[in-house]
Design goal:
Helix content is 24%, strand content 30%. It has helices at residues 9-13, 52-55, 158-164, 227-231, 234-241, 271-290, 307-318, 342-354, 372-384, 408-422, and strands at 16-17, 23-24, 59-66, 70-80, 84-91, 102-111, 114-118, 124-129, 135-141, 144-152, 174-181, 191-199, 207-213, 245-249, 295-305, 325-329, 359-364, 389-394. An eight-stranded antiparallel beta barrel has the order 3-4-5-6-7-8-9-10. 48% of the residues are buried.
Length: 423
């Protein structure tokens, strides 16, 4: 089936809702990629003189879906002098958005190490080769980007490529369960199995681990059951490309975790109990993951968005010997304009006194919950109490700055530099 528009992702992008990170109005998992390709597919060897960084793109790439939602396969059939590439761009079915699987041939251009595609609907797609040999793609139409991490198919044979494109290859993560014996709040005394999304790096041996903690539902603006899609965005894909294992746990009451909802407004739990419960969930995750044979238990980092970033900082203070670092995206438990914002300041101060590791705080302007002036103030409290960290501010994020994590092009350089420093 040949598609005239070529991409189809715009329909999904228009249905996105971003709240406290990446949350989607469009839900559901794509268990079958079903990505079609033309029968006359042909990958041609590059002529002499083409740079190696260009010829490295030749071949078929798949194994992921745009933002975890829309299965995608890219085939670079030919590269030529002048930085031109002949490309097949293919997508799978997305029934919830009435998107049908299709493919189209596109002329791409190489520039500054990127392969760029333009589509008639105004969308632009860029692919960058990462150090681990994967392709990291960004689709942009309007101001909301989507991301994908593609791996090379191990063949140039057209029939094998066409067959592989129809396999179940559109989900990077596996669904796991983490046991916990709760001692906090309404869940005290209960045996809980936390749902978590595990992203395994292809790099062999024991590898470092980054845990990504989610934010809140925004007072019920999104469903707590939607958290798997909330977390399956660019952040785990960036860390995977750097050779890290990644796990994204769902706290009590979120996703498929069967337990009382403690954090959200309907629970009526005191804020201290809410935070204690979140810390308990994170600790159960770390204890479970450090026992896995593919994890370097001496190098576990905690990260998170909004409440998840705040949680990462507080956990590092309460368990200073269990983590090697913290990356905080737009973190806080209560917005600065709420009557409970002093809770943030007090907890940041305690973290400054107790945490041992260096931290990276990432915030952007035009954040309706945490202005940069406010962030600079609480960071000063953290530092004054002995906290070790770096605050990096961003001033050019389209739309709300609270959604900084959705823009890895802006934050991945300081994050990568931070990870190198603490290794």
């Amino acid at each position: 089936m040949r598609g005239g528009k070529g991409d189809g992702l715009a329909s999904i992008v228009m249905k996105m809702r971003i709240l406290f990170g990446l949350a989607f109005a469009l839900l559901g998992s794509f268990s079958e990629a079903q990505v079609p390709l033309p029968s006359d597919l042909a990958i041609v060897s590059a002529p002499a003189g083409i740079p190696a960084q260009v010829t490295a793109f030749l071949g078929a790439w798949g194994g992921d879906a745009w933002q975890g939602l829309l299965p995608h396969v890219l085939v670079v059939e030919r590269v030529s002098s002048g930085g031109i590439a002949n490309v097949i761009y293919a997508i799978g079915n997305a029934p919830e958005s009435k998107i049908r699987a299709r493919w189209t041939r596109v002329i791409g251009k190489f520039s500054d190490g990127r392969l760029h595609l333009d589509f008639p609907n105004g969308a632009g797609v860029d692919y960058v080769m990462k150090d681990d040999g994967t392709l990291f793609g960004r689709y942009l139409i309007g101001v909301v980007p989507s991301y994908v991490r593609l791996t090379r198919f191990p063949t140039f044979d057209a029939r094998q490529i066409v067959a592989k494109a129809t396999e179940t290859t559109s989900q990077l993560w596996s669904d796991i369960r983490i046991p916990e014996q709760s001692s906090v709040g309404e869940a005290a005394g209960q045996a809980v199995m936390l749902q978590a999304m595990l992203y395994r790096t292809s790099v062999p041996g024991r590898r470092p681990l980054i845990i990504i903690n989610h934010g809140s539902t925004g007072g019920g603006e999104i469903s707590a059951a939607a958290m798997p899609r909330y977390l399956d965005g660019p952040v785990p894909r960036i860390f995977l490309s750097l050779g890290y294992n990644v796990v994204a746990p769902l706290r009590k009451g979120f996703g498929k975790t069967v337990a009382p909802m403690i954090e959200e407004p309907l629970s009526h739990s005191p804020q201290e109990v809410q935070l204690d419960s979140a810390v308990e969930d994170l600790d159960a995750t770390i204890e479970f993951m450090r026992a896995q044979p593919y994890v370097d238990s001496s190098h576990i980092l905690v990260s998170g968005q909004s409440r998840g970033g705040f949680l990462a900082i507080i956990y590092a203070a309460r368990y200073p010997d269990k983590v090697a670092g913290v990356i905080n995206f737009s973190g806080g438990w209560w917005g600065e304009h709420t009557p409970l914002t002093s809770f943030n300041t007090a907890q940041f101060g305690q973290a400054g006194r107790k945490a041992k590791v260096s931290m990276l705080w990432l915030y952007a302007d035009h954040d309706p919950y945490y202005s940069l002036k406010y962030v600079e103030g609480v960071f000063a409290v953290f530092r004054a109490q002995g906290g070790n960290g770096e605050l990096v501010e961003f001033h050019d994020i389209p739309g709300s700055g609270h959604f900084l994590s959705a823009w890895p092009d802006r934050w991945q350089a300081p994050a990568a530099n931070y990870l190198k420093r603490i290794r």
